[in-house]
Fold Molybdopterin molybdenumtransferase.
Amino acid sequence: MKEMISLEEARELVLANVDPLPQETVPVLEAVGRVAAEDLRSDIDIAPFAHSAMDGFAVRAAELASASVEEPVEMDVIAEVAAGDVYEGSIGEGQCVRIMTGAPVPDDADAVVKYEIVDVVAGDGKPGSRVAFTAPVKERNNVREAGEEAKAGEVVVEAGEVIGSAGVGFLAGCGVVEVPTHRRPRVAIISIGSELVDPTEVPTPGKIRNSNSYALAACAQAAGATPTILPIVEDTLEALAAAVSAAAREYDFVVTSGGASNGDFDFIKPVVEELGELLMTTVNMRPGKAQTFGVVQGTPVFGLPGNPAAAYVGFEMIIRPALRKMQGYRHFTRPVVKAKLSRDVKKNDPRRIFLRSTLYKDDAGEYVVAPAKNQSSGLFGVIQRSNCMAIMPEGLESRTAGSLIDCMLLDVSEEVSL
């Protein structure tokens, strides 16, 4: 095992040790945002019949070939067909049918002229009226054809495709009311530290509230997983070993925070090594150099640092991709854009640095990134007010204001390609 590995190596190492979880079938409404585990097919043609795209008059296009403002073509309105109804009668020469949006187009008609451009000569435009057309119309104008979107038996959502809110409606229209998808990962969240107390408590001297568990549970939930916050574990090897072992038996992924460095009370590395296989201990990044990963009883166990920003960045960069793979997603990295630095940034650390930052557009419409002034790894509030991570690559090269720098977007899905 290498002492320190790159972020890319760390991500690939973790991804190599997780697989998509077994399938489950969920109601179509619960499938929004999830990945189809199998091809999904329509049971009918969509649309099942040719229907009108708007309110108007169903006509034969050939009869309006000579229509003009100077010499309009007049027709008698012989019937009216609403959505849900069917007109099965014939349409003779010089006749048309009043039709509503979504109604089946009569067999004798081959076009629909919208109501607003038709003049009512006599009556109210309904059956018994006479109307005038002042322009020709093309065949199939304003007609949505049968099977236009899908044919019966055709795959409408492919395996591996993420189902959006519109996709839920599409599937419902295709008769797909249940969707096979990969089960959401059950993630155990464990905070380590004898100094921690529950957020409901007012900390006494020497104590702090356990905020990490809630942030990491929120990160897991945002990644599509089902998190469970387990009790705080005191700083002893025995207590941590018991907690990790129990969690590995019950959950699909275990995430701890705290105790990931090399101090006298940092035990996650020896615990993972004792209980299973230790695969990683440090990553060439800041914040979050100390990143422990291994497998215990067949379950991935990841030990994050205790500093909030270090834990958040480690989760976002390495754990989130793994949880997405377990759900069948195919894309694992957030979109990256280039932006101009708003100020000089000095670099005195050779690691890759992720600066909590705000991305915006200037008056010229160009992206500008403003790194937060306080980059302390102990702060959550800075992350809350950030929408991206400005990336300072490995090395000691500083950057001046106006320099282009890569920015990873935190509020845009991995599926988006920029």
